[in-house]
Amino acid sequence: MLTKLKRLPAARFENLIYDLLTVMGLENAVWRTPGRDGGRDIQGLYFVTDLSGYRHPQKWYIECKRYATAVDWPTVREKLSYAESHAADFLLLVTTSTASPQATDEINRWNRLNKRPKVRFWSGHDLVPILDHLPAIQVKYGLSENPSDAMAVSLLPLSEMTLKFVQAAYGEAVFRGSASPALEAAAAMADLSTRRMEQIEEFGSWIREETRRTDIYSWADCDSGADVRSIDRYCLRSLLCAFRSMVKSTRVELSARPDGILLRADGKRLLGEVQRKELLTIAQWGNCELLLENEGVAVIVRTTDEA
């Protein structure tokens, strides 16, 4: 990762540090792009809460140096003088390299004398373990060794936010009486995803939740002999809504079969290959098999070790 950091263009390296610092809590952060002010690259406030509960700001100036060689004391002193004249509380120097022995000695002496601003220093070897815990930044700047894995983790907060907005949009549409089949399907899958994440966080895995007759939508005609209880409620609702939306149907019929249930619809479209795969993806999160037959889609629950 350090090698990749050193290869970043200077402006991109500064943007990375900006993102890193804001994630770590720097507020009102400003990137001082070239031409605006040569005294520091980034500035912002970091708030500290004391024992009384009072939250007071610290003024931080940050200087980014994408160097191959050690940062010398004259360079540090120049930035320190600027930060001192502008009443900064802390000067943070961030580099892909290290501080020279003289710079390290002088920084330590400055801090021992309790002068302001206090000086903090991040070398390239300090940056790597910090970035190890921030997959989103790794992916954004091309630093990850496993981009696909890091991307999945980094997109989780955005995915959770998307799910919340989908559920809110569906609630508003239902209130207005204008929920479309596509929006209803999106809301059902948002419920499925949200519930799975909650269960995995709480139990380490997901568990089946029995479908009740009241979980079946008003536009779904459920045969009295159809055993829907054995199917996870969130999975079945997602399958129903997605199937209805995909085939452009008004209603869906659920009928009994020996090993599960059969979904049939008078849709205007046939399921395409991509849509079949999407239904299979939903089914996997309910431990179901799907059989695509001429008359519809069979949903079969695979046996599990559940008590």
What do you see in this structure?
45% of the residues lie in helices and 20% in strands. By secondary structure, it is an alpha/beta fold. The strands form two sheets. It has a five-stranded mixed β-sheet. A five-stranded mixed β-sheet has the order 6-7-8-10-9, with helices on one face. The mean pLDDT is 87.
Question: Which stretches of 5+ consecutive residues score pLDDT under 50?
Answer: none
Helical content, roughly?
40-55%
Total number of beta strands: 10
User: Could you tell me the mean pLDDT?
Assistant: 87
Shape annotation: elongated
Computed Rg = 29 Å
Distance between the termini: 47 Å
The profile of the biggest β sheet is: 5 strands, mixed
Element layout with pairings:
Elements: H1 2-7, H2 10-23, E1 27-31, E2 42-49, E3 55-65, H3 73-85, E4 90-95, H4 101-112, E5 118-122, H5 124-132, H6 135-140, H7 147-154, H8 156-176, H9 181-203, E6 220-222, H10 233-246, E7 252-257, E8 260-265, H11 273-284, E9 288-293, E10 296-301
Parallel strand pairs: 3-4, 4-5, 6-7
Antiparallel strand pairs: 1-2, 2-3, 7-8, 8-10, 9-10
Helix pairs in contact: 8-9, 9-10, 10-11
Core attributes:
five-stranded mixed β-sheet; alpha/beta; 307 residues; single chain
